[in-house]
Amino acid sequence: xxxxxxxxxxxxxxxxxxxxxxxxxxxxxxxxxxxxxxxxxxxxxxxxxxxxxxxxxxxxxxxxxxxxxxxxxxxxxxxxxxxxxxxxxxxxxxxxxxxxxxxxxxxxxxxxxxxxxxxxxxxxxxxxxxxxxxxxxxxxxxxxxxxxxxxxxxxxxxxxxxxxxxxxxxxxxxxxxxxxxxxxxxxxxxxxxxxxxxxxxxxxxxxxxxxxxxxxxxxxxxxxxxxxxxxxxxxxxxxxxxxxxxxxxxxxxxxxxxxxxxxxxxxxxxxxxxxxxxxxxxxxxxxxxxxxxxxxxxxxxxxxxxxxxxxxxxxxxxxxxxxxxxxxxxxxxxxxxxxxxxxxxxxxxxxxxxxxxxxxxxxxxxxxxxxxxxxxxxxxxxxxxxxxxxxxxxxxxxxxxxxxxxxxxxxxxxxxxxxxxxxxxxxxxxxxxxxxxxxxxxxxxxxxxxxxxxxxxxxxxxxxx
Amino acid sequence: xxxxxxxxxxxxxxxxxxxxxxxxxxxxxxxxxxxxxxxxxxxxxxxxxxxxxxxxxxxxxxxxxxxxxxxxxxxxxxxxxxxxxxxxxxxxxxxxxxxxxxxxxxxxxxxxxxxxxxxxxxxxxxxxxxxxxxxxxxxxxxxxxxxxxxxxxxxxxxxxxxxxxxxxxxxxxxxxxxxxxxxxxxxxxxxxxxxxxxxxxxxxxxxxxxxxxxxxxxxxxxxxxxxxxxxxxxxxxxxxxxxxxxxxxxxxxxxxxxxxxxxxxxxxxxxxxxxxxxxxxxxxxxxxxxxxxxxxxxxxxxxxxxxxxxxxxxxxxxxxxxxxxxxxxxxxxxxxxxxxxxxxxxxxxxxxxxxxxxxxxxxxxxxxxxxxxxxxxxxxxxxxxxxxxxxxxxxxxxxxxxxxxxxxxxxxxxxxxxxxxxxxxxxxxxxxxxxxxxxxxxxxxxxxxxxxxxxxxxxxxxxxx
Lengths: 465, 465
Hints:
Two copies of one chain form a homodimer.
Chain A: H1 2-9, E1 14-15, H2 18-21, E2 39-40, H3 45-58, E3 62-65, E4 84-87, E5 94-98, E6 103-107, H4 112-121, E7 124-125, H5 138-143, H6 151-154, H7 157-160, E8 161-167, E9 173-175, H8 189-193, E10 202-209, E11 211-212, E12 216-224, H9 227-240, E13 244-251, H10 252-261, E14 275-283, H11 290-303, E15 309-312, H12 316-327, H13 329-336, E16 339-345, H14 351-365, E17 369-376, E18 381-388, H15 396-414, H16 430-436, H17 439-452
Parallel strand pairs in A: 2-4, 3-4
Antiparallel strand pairs in A: 1-2, 5-6, 6-10, 7-11, 8-9, 8-10, 12-14, 12-15, 13-14, 13-17, 16-18, 17-18
Helix pairs in contact in A: 1-3, 9-11, 9-14, 10-13
């Protein structure tokens, strides 16, 4: 099949040098390792369609890969070498960007930061962002319905995708890029492909919604007594302004780890609080004094006893310093020792109680562990992390981790939540999805997968248990 | 099967009196007529599941029906009596309405106006609205991804649905009402059911997003030279305010028909213009003078030569009078004679040219007809109507209508548009979808339908050609 691709598409479309393949066979955290005889790198939608037809003919599964930034091994091929990597990196054009309709058409391999820059140059903004923005790609973001830190105001990818172009498992091209705002001609194939992790086809291009550029932002750091107080603050702010787009919860414990391990960081507040919140409010209107608005409201919240203390970043450098604390938590935890991460969600209103109760439950069931959470409280999405109290237990990760994860997933499921809020299922969570997934949903997913990919050639072993 | 349902669910769940069934066997425009031996009327999700299991066992197809307001015969059973009506009217509870999360849980049979009132009483608003608001139901709105006049700002149902509860064709219950803002556990069954017209399952309840109540609105009537000028006005306004939520294009010809046939109507402007626009801008902020803002901007547009004239409704009664003109166009056309309606969309930027060119093309190909469009210009969605120049051609509707519709659909398809923007496919457009639907999409739809409803018991003969 590889030689057939080379014959049809030329040598540029096929990489077989093992040193060039190797970096793409493991995920960035080094948890998943696969094998692939080649990397296929098509340069156009037609070339992707040709590859998919050959894959079907030869019964060789394809593993689509963008920036290889999956948190769940979603872009790593099986270890038996039965599948071939399909890299979208050569499909990296922003095909168009229309300021009137505020729609950008980006090919799957366009890097998020590149798209953000292109929007910025047009006086607009693509509002989704996340840590991997310098390497993750638009196709992967759509295929995983990625989230990030600005979901509160703008939604995850599902809300920002206006259309999808994809090659379906039979080699046909689905073109959802027509730019129609309304189209009720049946099942939404676009919506089905969003979050399908490449198991129903290869996303080749995406129409993306842009929003007005930011004229000003205000970033605040707030100390509160509890996650419940943090949620009260969010409700208080949301009732009075529509500008809040980031609202990140940070445990005092996480802050201390960052201060200890990340050079150049300092505590935003002089006072100590059990929980902290990073707030970002933005405006597209240059005449709005967003800093003054946020300051006034935080003053009211302080007087009302909702919060313990607050400080507003006085300039962009300080705003970046606040965000750096938030963005460094995982790195600080890794410096401290082994960390077991869970990307989970429950209903927003339920998260404060869940966070407190689940942490206590995990620490009780697994003595010597510290459980905590940080992240997108306003989305009901917390990165629930469990770590060993000391570095001593080097094999802790292997010995206790699966049982801890099962407990966390059980608690989430009992609370009506999701074991994957924004990172997807990939291969990492597929067994847990099989164990805990709602039967009706699992049944429907399996039926759809069989119907659209009867040969099983699209990203095998991912998402669908 | 009917007696089995009566036995399990009791007499209340089964109506067999033919006089009680008859009103539900035809659509409100009297174009589609079906047969059904009974109306099944379950009172709970469990009862729906029981009925679906019995339907599967007895191989009797079900036709879900809400307010029976479909524009495309989507809720009318086959004429051979092979299927049974499944009325959702007894599932009419608003289960909850949470002002904090701004989510309402409404059963499928809740009437739109009832939900709007419930939201209003909680100081909130459900922003989707349309002519049939007094009889259409939430289940039908979700199943058809309904649109309406406020889509410009708030989106169609797809954007307003936060979760779906449905009984799938195997009788299992899909529960998407968990209230999770983020959930990446695989294919979105919710999204698949939105717009599926009951062909993949019966929607039993919907979680709906609410928005802040309107504090004030401004309604204006504007005269312009052309659809292109109307679109320029929209872009001009959108760049300066986010408050525009209604932007309805009306041809002078349509206005004259309304003034002639609808008692009590009068022209909003003293001057005459080839095209008119009805604009509604709203604000949730009581301190914003939305009327003054809109007036200033329309003044600028007038000075810049974008528009020919404009008037702002000076009070609510006048605002209602402006809307009444827009809402009476179809009625006025019917009073004038036979009208052939097409609910179509193209990309927003393409609509002005399409409207002018397609009208000319139809009038040229079918002498004696008048082609025109009105509606949601900002969504690229026009109700493209063709009528006979006089009442004389009584059989015109039957003789020429199919050929006219084929021409319109061909023109729309050639322009990359949709033959159904917001009304769906139902049975009315199924042949045209088969003729013109993108092959990849038709193939995927058929595969999904077979996979999830292998017995073909869900709303046969609709949507999937």
